[in-house]
TrEMBL record:
The gene is LOC125777056. PROSITE patterns: N6_MTASE. Its EC number is 2.1.1.346. This is U6 snRNA m(6)A methyltransferase. SUPFAM superfamilies: S-adenosyl-L-methionine-dependent methyltransferases (SSF53335).
């Protein structure tokens, strides 16, 4: 395929799994697949029920995670979430921590699946603090942590005010420092007349998105979109420069990368790096910044 860029070198989905074997093994996944004449399984990524069953099956098969999503909520795609976790692993190596260090991270807006925290805990035994403002998502996230016996590693924090990122959480944990924070912010700008149809891609140059649009409006949109949400994270990070060693966020629109870099630069935050998360036809971006001068952020690919 033209211009197809690769996933992180350690991403297990760089080689597509054997979906035929998985359809034989997982009944619920089999129900949403179609068998083609050549015997191969066809997955309709534009169908929400298919995406749900696919993500649930992949989490079960590769991470022994049993995850339920709140009805109508965002269905996370696993290759992208894994690309982000692998990038964080790379960034954490820059800290040159002793091997026995207990890694602590914050997941801003964990969603109903709590997918990043569950993956980080199951894969790396990182201690995760998952922040969420939506009550329905909180209930499911708590259930998902319990169902996977990960309560020792994942702690859910109810964010009572959506405008706040760290204040209440850090007030509740005054003496704890964290190695990183991660975030998949609400992408769309709720102040636009038609937020979900706003043109964010250069349609002439790129193929249309392959996955269907999932998630409640509240999860996907906020005033000012992802740039404003990330701006709040940056402003809060300035208030707590030592509380988190590496602040990070994902961005869904390429145009947001330059805008966020400009915000960081205007604030004279210079220990910064960016990355691309490539998943076949979908690309997302990652930005990291730090107030520490003990290490220099840069991308480590191994
Ligand atoms: C795009 S979803 C990401 C969900 C999940 N992390 C994922 O990647 O699938 C953003 C989530 O952030 C939550 N959220 C929005 N504002 C928040 C805030 N100030 N603090 C914590 N969570 C927030 C939303 O309710 C939603 O669940």
């Amino acid at each position: 395929m033209k211009n197809k860029r690769l996933m992180h070198p350690r991403n297990i989905f760089r080689t597509p799994p054997d979906y035929t074997a998985l359809a034989i093994k997982y009944k619920d996944f089999r129900k949403v697949c179609k068998l083609e004449l050549n015997g191969k399984v066809y997955i309709d990524y534009r169908n929400e029920a298919t995406l749900r069953a696919l993500t649930q099956m992949l989490l079960e098969e590769f991470f022994q995670l049993h995850v339920e999503f709140a009805p109508g909520s965002l269905v996370p795609t696993l290759p992208l979430r894994l690309n982000y976790i692998l990038w964080l692993e790379d960034l954490i190596t820059l800290l040159k921590l002793p091997v026995e260090t207990v890694i602590r991270g914050i997941d801003i807006g964990c969603g109903s699946s709590c997918i990043y925290s569950l993956l980080a805990a199951r894969k790396n035994a990182w201690h995760m603090h998952a922040l969420e403002s939506n009550d329905g998502n909180l209930t499911y996230a708590e259930r998902n942590v319990e169902a996977n016996q990960l309560a020792q590693l994942v702690d859910i924090f109810k964010q009572t005010d959506k405008q706040i990122i760290f204040k209440d959480f850090f007030n509740a944990k005054p003496d704890v420092n964290f190695h990183f924070c991660l975030c998949n912010p609400p992408f769309y700008d709720s102040s636009l007349p038609n937020p979900f149809n706003a043109k964010t891609r250069n349609e002439d140059k790129r193929t249309p998105p392959h996955n269907c649009h999932t998630g409640h409006n509240e999860e996907l949109a906020c005033e000012g979109g992802e740039v404003q949400f990330v701006q709040r994270i940056i402003e809060d990070s300035e208030l707590y420069p030592q509380s988190v060693c590496i602040y990070t966020t994902m961005l869904g629109h390429k145009s947001s990368v330059a805008r966020v870099m400009e915000i960081l630069s205007k604030k004279l935050i210079t220990n910064v790096c960016t990355t691309e998360f490539c998943q076949g036809n979908t690309t997302r971006w990652g930005i990291a910044w730090s107030f520490s001068s003990d290490f220099k952020l840069h991308n480590v690919v191994n």
